[in-house]
Amino acid sequence: MQNEKAFSLAEMLVVIAIMGRLILVTVPSRVNNVKKQARLTYIQKAYEALDKVYNYAIYDDNSIAGVCDPGAPAGLCTASTNQYNNFNDVVEKMFYNNMRATGFDATTTPGVISFSTRDGMTYSFSKFKPSCGYLSNNDKTANLKTKSAAEGSSCFIIDIDVNGSAGPNKPTDASALKNGEWNDQYRLYAFKDSIEFLTSENILIVGKKAATEEKSGSAVEESATLPNE
């Protein structure tokens, strides 16, 4: 009967050390991929909700026709009942009521109106201008090329935090995307006819590309549930 040679204690310790090292290297990367995918899922959901409400208000709602109230963004026409008397009305009646939100706040920060939705995301509306521009194909590139151009021609700005007050509370802008960082804060610009990201960020396009690349490589199969940080 042959003697079976067992691993020595030293060899076992080496194997354990290697396994520990691999875990330290791979787990953080995997967690970051899950967070990235979760944030992308959430911002896509937020954008679709905002875009649907905005388009309905502008094009489909029969009560929004004929007379434009001076307090509403130019182009958002209202019924003779003055549906939108001011920016508070625009945010409350157009977005807050239709997104089943809570915590409408127009007083904490001057010039900023905010609320939260049931999924934990917060929305802040600011920099309202009654005189603003359309985003036709001809001027889309110019108006969305830089933050200053977008702020100058948009009707108002929408800032979204996909996980509320939880961290890291950092913007996902062109610089962050260049480094592969998907943080929790995103900015949208509302024009007379649409709501858009900056072209330098292309959040939805970049996000879809990133998701495709991950699936073709080392796919992250976990469901996109945003972890608390």
Folded structure, characterized:
The longest helix is centred in the N-terminal third of the chain and has 52 residues. It is built from 6 helices and 6 strands. The C terminus is likely disordered. By secondary structure, the chain is of the alpha+beta class.
What characteristics describe this protein?
single chain; 229 residues; alpha+beta; six-stranded antiparallel sheet; 12% strand
Oligomer state equals single chain
Number of helices, counting only DSSP H or I runs of 4 residues or more: 6
Q: Which sheet architecture does the biggest sheet show?
A: 6 strands, antiparallel
Strand order of the largest sheet: 1-2-3-4-5-6
Count of structural domains: 1
Shape: elongated
Strand content: 5-15%
Structural class from helices and strands? Answer: alpha+beta
Radius of gyration: 24 Å
Number of strands: 6
* First-last Cα distance: 58 Å
Report the helical percentage: 40-55%
SSE order: HHEEEHHEHEEH
Could you tell me the mean pLDDT?
A: 73
Instruction: Please mark out the parts with pLDDT under 50 across 5 or more consecutive residues, or reply none.
Output: 62-72, 78-82, 218-229
Compact description:
The chain is of the alpha+beta class and 229 residues long. The chain has 6 helices and 6 strands; from the N terminus they run ααβββααβαββα.
Describe the protein's topology.
Layout: H1 9-60, H2 87-96, E1 102-105, E2 113-116, E3 122-126, H3 140-143, H4 147-153, E4 156-161, H5 174-178, E5 185-190, E6 195-196, H6 203-216
Antiparallel strand pairs: 1-2, 2-3, 3-4, 4-5, 5-6
